[in-house]
Here is the input.
Amino acid sequence: MKPKILVMDDDVSICKICTLLLNRLGYDVDTTSCGDEALTCFEKALKENTPYLAVILDLTVQSGMGGLETLKKLRILDPNVYAIMASGSSLDNMLLSYQSHGFKDVLPKPFRVQDLTDCIVKIKPAQT
Here is the structure.
């Protein structure tokens, strides 16, 4: 069974790109457009004993919970969730202090293939 990654972003094109790239890196990917959907997927995966290796959370979504609020609720389900912050705002101070908000890594948008790969490679040892 391939390790799974959950991507939450309200931009359909980002979800498609992440899915394509992560599939090529050997991961199964689920995508959601908001925090409520991400929580549902995450909880279902835990119940089915097929947890996500990591979650990539967009900080700001148009409708529903953004990444920060979603991460707080994910931590209730799994305090050790490996969360990567994604944000398109270079002015967002949270990008600089992502760890103090509970994220393990940050993925500034627009990101390159190598940026995504670098984030994911850091967590590969956790699956062995």
In short: Strands lie at 4-8, 28-32, 52-58, 83-87, 105-108.
